[in-house]
């Protein structure tokens, strides 16, 4: 999607409009993260009732389906918003969230759960449209600050989502109010309803406070590039960036990093929820949600407090391999947590993982910006290529994690339940080694930036 940057935007975004965009992005990430604490338990329940034993594989499929749907349908929603405007697309997405979050909570078979998860991803393509809206209503001087609002919402949503998912799961075992209700029959419905309700509130807020940002005179006709055309163009542009010297190195390093990081999304709960007798921690949904909340909070602190001083001291080029090493160390240490010290050790490991991840993202983006400007390449194409490759990694990671877990969890060391986490570390190491090949630009200031 092309994001315009008008010197004088046709519509001025008030506080209400920016609040709606912020909420839409938060909900987008809540939709991704809310299932992480309880997904393994939901799959185990449904798999048992259906006589299915490949729990890890189904966990990977359910996590992958959401990212795959977003990857496939974001260009579609972008095309639609170019023709009919941003406001209706954002509002349709919010309603879709409410419907399919609730459907997921009510799923009584794995196929229904998979369908609901995929459809939630289809309608949760609001991030690209929200960015386009900001581009429509912002002057060049406002653009960076307002895009930063989307980044903050991204981190907040990933923190809130797992926390809600964990704390509100299985409510009948925690609060008498829910005993004998539908929430006892469907123990994971309440967090899904909560997310759906938040989306519905945002829809109402958007109805009253979100003006259309794209004037009719600037909308494309129905004969413009369609969904398939946009997807094809995205693939071609991404491919063209994979042989552009240091730019391609940064993009490949990002792909390996996200690949390793999202493998963890699938296998973390499989490990922590595993019985103590099998080497796991016997964690429940709430305990898992709190650990992911720690990761989210630590990531926010890293990007809000640490990244500035470290960037000035080390520079983005040095921080990139360092961040891979830090994050990889944390991921490898996860399955070596001792049950009697699990809370303390997992919090420490979670902070290590979050610091590494929090340093990597802005460092890679900074380097891409520097090299794109140095080589005179359109920044939108470069960032689009990075996002496309990252999306593919988010699809591949959970599925790989689920498959590896399924084939190794019952085996003996070294190919046992540690293996998936070892692969995370290997991928992070590969990313670090690859990033060392990024050349130094004598006329660039990223070492001091």
Annotate the secondary structure layout.
Blueprint: H1 15-33, H2 39-50, H3 55-84, H4 86-105, H5 110-123, H6 126-137, H7 140-167, H8 182-185, H9 189-209, H10 227-240, H11 246-272, H12 285-314, H13 316-333, H14 342-374, H15 379-408, H16 419-435
Helix pairs in contact: 1-6, 1-7, 1-9, 2-3, 3-4, 3-5, 3-6, 3-10, 3-11, 3-15, 4-5, 4-6, 4-9, 6-7, 7-9, 7-12, 10-15, 11-13, 11-14, 11-15, 11-16, 12-14, 13-14, 13-16
- Anisotropy-based shape: globular
Assign the structural class, choosing from mainly alpha, mainly beta, alpha/beta, alpha+beta, or little secondary structure: mainly alpha
Name of the CATH architecture of the largest domain: Up-down Bundle
Cα separation of the termini: 29 Å
Q: Supply the number of structural domains.
A: 2
Q: Biggest sheet, open or closed, and with what strands and sense?
A: none
Stretches where pLDDT is under 50 for at least 5 consecutive residues are: 1-7, 443-449
Strand content: under 5%
At the fold tier of CATH, the topology name of the largest domain is Growth Hormone, Chain: A
Average pLDDT rating: 83
> What is the β-strand count?
0
Q: What is the radius of gyration?
A: 22 Å
Question: What would CATH call the class of the largest domain?
Answer: Mainly Alpha
